[in-house]
Amino acid sequence: MDKMPAWADAVLVPLISLLLAAFLSALVILAIGENPVDAFKLMVDGALMRSSGWGYTLYYATNFIFTGLAVAVAFHARLFNIGGEGQAVLGGLGAALACLFIPWPHWSLAIIGGAFAAAAFGALWALIPAYLQAKRGSHIVITTIMFNFIAAALLNYVLVNLLKPAGSMEPATANFPEATHLPSFQDMFATADNPLFRGSPANVTFFLALIACVLVWLLIWRTRLGYEIRAQGHSETAARYAGISPVRITIVAMLISGGLAGLMAVNATMGEAERLVINAAEGAGFIGIAVALMGRNHPVGVLMAALLFGFLYQGGAELALWTNIPRELIVVIQALVILFTGALDNMVRMPLEKLFVKRRAA
Amino acid sequence: MNDTVPAIELKGISKAFGPVQANKDISIRVMPGTIHGIIGENGAGKSTLMSILYGFYKADAGEIYISGRKTDIPDSQAAISAGIGMVFQHFKLVQNFTVLENVILGAEEGGLLNNSLSKARKVLKQLAEEYELSVDPDALIEDLSVGHQQRVEILKALYRQADILILDEPTGVLTPAEADHLFRILDNLRAEGKTIILITHKLREIMEITDTVSVMRRGEMTATVKTSETSPEELAELMVGRKVLLRVDKKPATPGEKLLEIKDLRHVDDHGVERLKGISLDLRAGEILGIAGVAGNGQSALLEVLGGYADATGSVKLRGQELPLSGPGSDGSARREAGIGHVPEDRHHEGLILDYTAWENAIFGYHRDAQYQKGLLMDHDAIRKDAEGKIERFDVRPANCNLAAKNFSGGNQQKIVLAREIERNPDVLLIGQPTRGVDIGAIEFIHQQIVRLRDEGKAILLVSVELDEIFALSDRIAVMFDGQIMGFRDPAETDQRELGLLMAGVTNTKEASHG
């Protein structure tokens, strides 16, 4: 039934949840003897008031858009892909191999090749749990979690034993060739008089993420495959009645999901580090779950939520840098946001629904 | 016994769920020692009213009087101590407990079970003699037939000394013989002075057993009449709010060529249970073959196998062409392409995606057709236009194809499914429970559509647990029991009694009906 207007559902509910999370965070900051207003100002200042701050916020957001979309696509088929982290790790390996072993003449070709390799590796890493779910009924939540650990161990092995340059003490590959370096926002937008985005990691991959948003929207709501994915997500019996193969949908949805998670590596590995390091995924695979939850599995929502979490990441780093608020507390704030926007969603939604119903009745 | 004080009196009961007014100022008096029927279409508010009486919901307004005393019923415990017992449509029994254990569950006395069990055994024996309520007290629930399980539910209520018994759609899962027995039990209970409220949507049952009947429509009590002073036609009109045709107008069938030939069809489900044990039947063009049977005797499996979403062995030929029964080419799309349409039994979980809009649902299963594609994307304009036509021709209300399927009433949801399957012009149409949960007004329309399709020379396989519907529509009747077909009958030469025996697995119906 039409309980409340769509704008309230899409904007008001997350907004109120955010305010609640902010309020609780303020209490926590008060409790350790800091001033929450100053802290908030510092976060906004560090993440949004300077172009270099934006450069970091957008860099993080790019990661979260990819992993958020990955979770969202799988979720439309009612598959809970917890394995974004592992798929992103494998995506990094794919991108690194493509950059290290193929002599790209120009970055514009390298980004295409790297993206394909990253997506393919991520997709293949998701294929195994998908196959096990579709054919053997092994629960995808369990298998994808386990595959995160396997991916981390695999990357460790590959870096230490195969890809580490001789004599290096660090588990990382050599730097990628110059031709594969992606233009950063600084390269693209800074001028001699106006040094925009100085030193910040945001790069051309952000636009790739925006394109991914559009493509995912088209896929889910405008294509036959999306129609079938959503049908299966709503009712598997109905899907089978309509001649939709659950095995096929499970595998295809997970391939797309894993591919999107893998694409994150284009940003983190090719765009920023320009070599493959051990913690290349930076936990973005897990943040993607929160981003998809908060964004209601819609690309626009994912984009907004990814920006918010980008802000929290960058603002949090600023806090840790300039105040006595420890880094761990930033994680607490992020957790509160996830708790309120994701897990406690109904706490805000239900009273709000009642309010709207009452107002209409009156 | 004081006959002037009602056993139950409800005064001005109202209950709203959000914007939906489920019960609106309902007042009703149920006299002791009577059977009071409450009839109404799905969603009329019958179940809500009874849930208030049993303490599941709290009324927004109104008062409940039990035997003249104002009573608050905040929970089911309070209802039980007020002497109210409820027999739900879906039984609330512990499957791996014995009958005795189920009966004392929640009414155990003391820390050890022995005393309660032996007391219950005595009470049960006495109740069995008094009311024809015999059940083996040591049998496990899972080994009992549905009819016996229902008796356990009644025994549970009586053991808690209920004077008022509420039965919610009690005959939905029973064979005609079991239903007859249930009515004898209710008769005996009435004779002992118990008060019974019978909720049903079947007019025949109301006429057969009740003393008084109340009719509900859209949350309101539209009438309360003495059963002896009313007729099914009048009740139907009160339920729907206009005159309805209870009979289906149809000409005799003119069966043509054999369209579907099924031989020795066998199916084993996911739990390893053999659901179809060698089904063989022929279906001709221009006829309706009705499959009668108590729910759960393999009818669903038959539809699933023919509809292409359950594997089977045996042989199914369509126009002489063998259809694959497993592996590639045996899925729902292949069946649709071959010309088999399917209106499934469970429109909520099979026929529709409830969260999809009407226009998305209007192509469900046919969404791969070229006419709905535009390059890589789906052609939403074409699909919408197509859906709008279907909605208009099948009189779906509200006529808004952007509404999610879950926001339509049962009848209108069914019309969306029917429109989708019928307008595809299939050679063979499988229809499961076409009017389950559908309001009387829409039943009329749906039956007319099925007969029209038959007259156009299509072959129709109808599965229904409603014998009235089987009789009204079928040109031939097959009875299923335990995954087998017990026999074929001509509807003109059989009756509910004979079918009832077949539905219970008795094949020697001639002798049994004389015996």
Automatic annotation (TrEMBL), chain A:
UniProt subcellular location: Cell membrane
InterPro entries on file: ABC_transp_permease
Topology term for the membrane: Multi-pass membrane protein
TM region positions: 57-75, 87-104, 110-128, 140-160, 204-221, 249-270, 276-295, 302-323, 329-348
GO cellular component: plasma membrane
Keywords from the UniProt entry: Cell membrane, Membrane, Transmembrane, Transmembrane helix
Annotated GO MF terms: transmembrane transporter activity
Pfam families in alphabetical order: BPD_transp_2
Presence of the UniProt keyword Transmembrane in the record: yes
Protein name (record): Nucleoside ABC transporter membrane protein
Native organism taxonomy: Bacteria, Pseudomonadati, Pseudomonadota, Alphaproteobacteria, Rhodobacterales
From TrEMBL, chain B:
Pfam families, alphabetized: ABC_tran
Family matches, as SUPFAM superfamilies: P-loop containing nucleoside triphosphate hydrolases
Keywords tagged on the record: ATP-binding, Cell membrane, Membrane, Nucleotide-binding, Repeat, Sugar transport, Translocase, Transport
Gene3D superfamilies, per database record: P-loop containing nucleotide triphosphate hydrolases
Xref: SMART domains: AAA
GO MF term set: ATP binding; ATP hydrolysis activity
Keyword Nucleotide-binding among UniProt keywords: yes
InterPro entries per record: AAA+_ATPase (IPR003593), ABC_carbohydrate_import_ATPase (IPR050107), ABC_transporter-like_ATP-bd (IPR003439), ABC_transporter-like_CS (IPR017871), P-loop_NTPase (IPR027417)
UniProt topology in membrane: Peripheral membrane protein
Subcellular location: Cell membrane
Keyword match Ubl conjugation: no
Residues annotated as domain ABC transporter: 8-243, 260-507
GO cellular component terms attached to this protein's record: plasma membrane
PANTHER family the record matches: CARBOHYDRATE TRANSPORT ATP-BINDING PROTEIN MG119-RELATED (PTHR43790), GUANOSINE IMPORT ATP-BINDING PROTEIN NUPO (PTHR43790:SF4)
Family: Belongs to the ABC transporter superfamily.
Protein name: Nucleoside ABC transporter ATP-binding protein
Protein's organism: Thalassococcus halodurans
